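Lecture 7 notes: from sequence to structure.
We start with the chain below.
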Amino acid sequence: MSILVIDVGTSGVRGAVVRPDASVEHIHHVPVLPDTPFPGLVEFDAIAIADAVRQVATRSLADGGPVDAVGIATQRASTLVWDRATGQPVGPGLGWQDLRTVGTCLELQAQGIRIAPNASATKLAAILDIADPDRARSERGELAFGTIDTWVAWILSEGELHITDASNAGVTGLIHADGSGWSPHLLSALRIPEAVLPRIVDSSGVVGTARLLDGAPPIAGVAGDQQASLIGQSCTRAGQAKATFGTGGMLDQCLGDQRPPQAARGPAGTIPIIAWRRDGTITWGIEAIMLSAGNCVEWLRDDLGIIEDAADSSVVAEQCDDSGDVWFVPALLGLGTPVWDFGARGTFTGITRGSGRPELVRAVLEGIAHRGSDLLESAEADSGLPIDSLRVDGGMTANTVFIQALADACGCPIEISPVLEATTLGAAFLAGMAVGTWTGEDDIAAAWSPRSIVEPSLTVAERDAARSRWLDARSRAEGTIPELSGIDF
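Predicted structure tokens for the same chain:
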């Protein structure tokens, strides 16, 4: 039973057909880039996303034939509001990176409410303040709020479905900590009428039909991108973890039915997440976040001009055996887990007259790898569950020097995903469990077949020494801009 997957990322929309053997075929992609009208503001065109969804779905189905279900994976927390009668957005959508509501988040802290500006909550309030300042239209049910998964389901169902799955609802900042539903307290604090909110549904389960598509296949799987990547790499058992290395980096660990004890950020800097919900039962997880990963390689290419393309970073780094005690901290946008220092900045230490192009490039790749180790160690600390091996996907997994450095920094085997972007496969697994392509989480676990496994090459003593040197460099990067370092969400 084949699955059509619609995967909406930050920079575009991808359609693909996933077969029962977990092969991903007939991939089509349409770029849809966000707009940055001013620094800190990130907006997107929801109509352009809807058009792209129609295009990739039509093309993938034309190439791949009929499917038995549809799965949806999307960027999380990006926020839009539209008119239910016309289906037209009331204004630009606000991307998850948008920071215009930082002031509101700080004001809420005075009320004992901690919401980060990347969550949907304050973005929704900001849109309503402009489009419906007295909330009259919202109260009458004329307006609808959605994250991107909500919008895609609305488009595919031709306006019949106004839903979000539990994994996406969990990062809006508007639900109870136990995942049981929307929080009246938080809605009241932000003047958000419940009538604008979508219905929260299972991540795996038939929720309606994609009337837009030939054959009207059922929509049976919905998840946020990182959660989809977690299950897409078959991390269905407690303790298993994956990391995605793209522009930034995310490490997610499955906790099973064990709900994280912290309602917000854990002592080691991880964030509790709803990994997915199936048959009304939540599978929990935690997430560790790296703000800068692949964008550091882009910096080497686009701004410093010392490599011609991203693949060159591996070739250049191989020209030296080690970095010559040069260390790089990838904090171009601050540091996430574990320290959460928005005032930290990128730092090189140990540069000498003998430090050349290969040493600097290798130091950048190794610095990203050490940040990966930060995320792994934080997840283990907050969950209490060891990570015996780490599964990875994303663009940087093609970089052999980086992957070896990651294995050395983490001190465990690195298992490389058979597909570059596991989000598509995860959405297919969720939809497929609902319609019988796969029987359940155990079936998904058995489907894991890494493209390759990279073992650590350092001894324990060598790894400990490297970690110590790098952590010293990280401490020097912290607090570069004290005013930003003092902000905490």
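Points to note: The two ends are 44 Å apart (CA to CA). The chain has 16 helices and 21 strands.
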